[in-house]
Amino acid sequence: MLEGALSILMKCTALFLAAICSLGLLHAQEDTSGDAGRRFEGTIGENLKITLLLESTLDEDGETSYDGAYHYHKTGIPISLTQVPDAGELIRLRENEGSDAEGRETFTGQWAVKLDGTDITGTWSTPDGKKKLPISLRESYPAGSVRVVTTQLESVQTLRKNGGKRGFEIKVRYLQLASRTAAAAEINRVLRQDALNVPVNEDEDPTHIPENPTEKDILAAMVMKEEAGEDEDWEAAFVESVDDSQSVMMNESGFLTVEYVTWTYTGGAHGNYGSSYRSFDLESGQELLLEDLVKTGYEKRWATLGAAELLLQQGLKPDAPLTEVGLFEDTLELNETWFLTPGGIGFSYDPYEIGPYGRGMIQFVLPWKDILPDLKPGSRIYDMASRLGAKTK
User: Fold this and answer.
1) Which domains are seen in the chain, by residue range?
2) How high is the pLDDT of residue 97?
């Protein structure tokens, strides 16, 4: 009798724990207003022509935050923008062109602007505020660019056992092109596939992963099938998090570059983050591969150019050691994390890859004028590089 009662109690306890473990929150939000991944063109000052890619993110409280990047048409090199918290009506952004050897961001200017429908107006100023120039921009999608919409998905779940708990949080932000061409359909498929790959377990049978996933497939994958193990440390409660966000880095001349920023936390002193990229041909829908754009034998020369760019970012002489800019070694090797910009080809290194965590992301862009001889002639990339390279000589 006692054994039977204990058996029933254990079964009830297991069912109760399973029910609690399955509780969670799944939230999906699509930006239908177009107020995400928007493209603007206009001027700073009288005639400094620029293109701005502005990203917006809506939080749980309905508040919108902004960041993005812009480039001068003369150079094509992206300058990142990060919003400064402010209670006023204006959107305040700081432009950041890198970081120093200690990982402190280098701010080169400030924006104070107002977004009114399809127009942005305001003021650019130096960090000390002594020099100011007017900003006038209008949303624009000329030939060779495309409108983009954003979907934000979030899953929050909690596992509880007695007084202990563990949390699991997944956030996915993915892009879709607002175009009905066959090329756009293929690019959208790849972007959805990448979004689906965030919550999918690495050990899952790949044959069960759809090649053309829908939003429903992504949502289903975000309901984690995590089970509480016998050796779980329930006394040390923490939230395991994955946050993956797609954003537009280039959207012109018939090319689209998407940046993927992934932040993860699985316990410990801090989380980890990194970036990856895809560049697409908007006419064909195919992803660009560096080997298809560049002649063989470029690696050593580009590494030398990249080292010079990193030293230039810190105002150091070309013969200064790279350890002075926070790298582990005094030599630089190219990795495979490259990206296409209007002004050249860039490379990105995650924390710990060639420098300490505090140094943050390490990036540089090689201007077209410096790498044009290494590009394969006869392509649209080569033609674009030739035009911009001629402007910056």
Assistant:
1) 38-139 (2.40.128), 145-281 (3.30.565), 290-392 (3.90.640.20)
2) 62
